[in-house]
Amino acid sequence: MLNATWLDTFTTLCEVGHFTRTADLLGMTQPGVSQHLNKLASQVGKPLILKDGKSFTLTPAGEAVLAIGTARRQQERALQDAIQVDRPDVGEISIGCSGSFAMWLYPHLLNRMQHAPELVINVTAAPHGGIVTSVLSGDFDLGVIAEPINHPRLEAVALGREELCLVVPRSLAGQTFDLQMLNDLGFVAHPDGYAYANDLFSLNFPKDYKGADRLRVRTFVNQIGQIPMPVAQGLGYTILPKSGVDAFTNKQDVAIIRLPQKHYHDLWMIARKGRSEIARVAAVSDFIMQHKAR
C-alpha cells in the first residue's frame, strides 16, 4: 500500500516539474520533497526519476506510480462531487470546446460567475478527439463537439447548428469571389482552417478546388482570438464558424461572404453518463443551451 502523502508529493512534483515550486505549493521545504520522493522510491523498490541538472525525467517505475497518483486524484474528485452539497452555483466545472466556440462562450460564462461567487468554471480549447477523451476521463465535465458521437459511457444532446463563414476584409464586402481571387488575397490559416476549407470550398468550387494544401497561405495564426485580425487589416481571408466571427472585438472591420452552397456543423453537448445529473453541471449545460438558442 503506497503512502498517500508521499504519493501526493510525487504526483504534484510531476505536475509542476520543479522541486522548489513543488515545495512552495505544498508548504514544504525542498529537502522535504526529496525525502518524500526517496521514501516512496524505497517503498516501490526502484528509482522513480532520473535527474538531469535542475530537470528530471520519469523512469518506467515512476510513470507507473504517477498513473496511480493521477487515478487517485480523479477518484478523490469523484468522491468530493458525491459528498458535497449539490447546488447549481457551487463548485468547479470544466468545459472543453473548439477555440471559436470558446471565444463566443466565455464572456457569457463570466457573466454567470459574477452572479455565482462560489462557482468556478474552466474553459479549455481542444480538438475533437481531445474533448471526447477528456470527458471520458473526467477531466472535462462537459464538451462541445461538431459531430454526433455514439459511445456507451457518454450522453449527447444536440446544441444547434453553426455555419462556416468565409471572412474577408470589410472593403471587399459584397463582392463575388472565385477560388483564384481568394488565392490572390491569401489564406489566413489556423489549426482548424484547413478542414474548414475542405468542407466549404469542396462544395462551392468543385472543379477548381484541389485541397487545402494547395491554398496560398498568407499567414498562420494559432491563437483563436487573433485569427480575424489579419483579415481586418486587409491581409487575407479566413474561414471560421459564425461564433468565432461574432466574438471578434472588431467584427465591424470584416465581412462575411455568402457562398452559393452553405455548410453547417451540427454542435453537440456531451457529458459522461450520470455527470449531467450533478446540479452545477446541469445548470451550466442548460445555461449554454439557452444562450446558444438565442
Automatic annotation (TrEMBL):
<dbReference type="Pfam" id="PF00126">
    <property type="entry name" value="HTH_1"/>
</dbReference>
<dbReference type="InterPro" id="IPR036388">
    <property type="entry name" value="WH-like_DNA-bd_sf"/>
</dbReference>
<protein>
    <submittedName>
        <fullName>DNA-binding transcriptional LysR family regulator</fullName>
    </submittedName>
</protein>
<comment type="similarity">
    <text>Belongs to the LysR transcriptional regulatory family.</text>
</comment>
<dbReference type="GO" id="GO:0003700">
    <property type="term" value="F:DNA-binding transcription factor activity"/>
</dbReference>
<feature type="domain" description="HTH lysR-type">
    <location>
        <begin position="2"/>
        <end position="59"/>
    </location>
</feature>
<keyword id="KW-0805">Transcription regulation</keyword>
<keyword id="KW-0238">DNA-binding</keyword>
<dbReference type="Pfam" id="PF03466">
    <property type="entry name" value="LysR_substrate"/>
</dbReference>
<dbReference type="InterPro" id="IPR000847">
    <property type="entry name" value="LysR_HTH_N"/>
</dbReference>
<dbReference type="GO" id="GO:0000976">
    <property type="term" value="F:transcription cis-regulatory region binding"/>
</dbReference>
<dbReference type="InterPro" id="IPR005119">
    <property type="entry name" value="LysR_subst-bd"/>
</dbReference>
<dbReference type="InterPro" id="IPR036390">
    <property type="entry name" value="WH_DNA-bd_sf"/>
</dbReference>
<keyword id="KW-0804">Transcription</keyword>
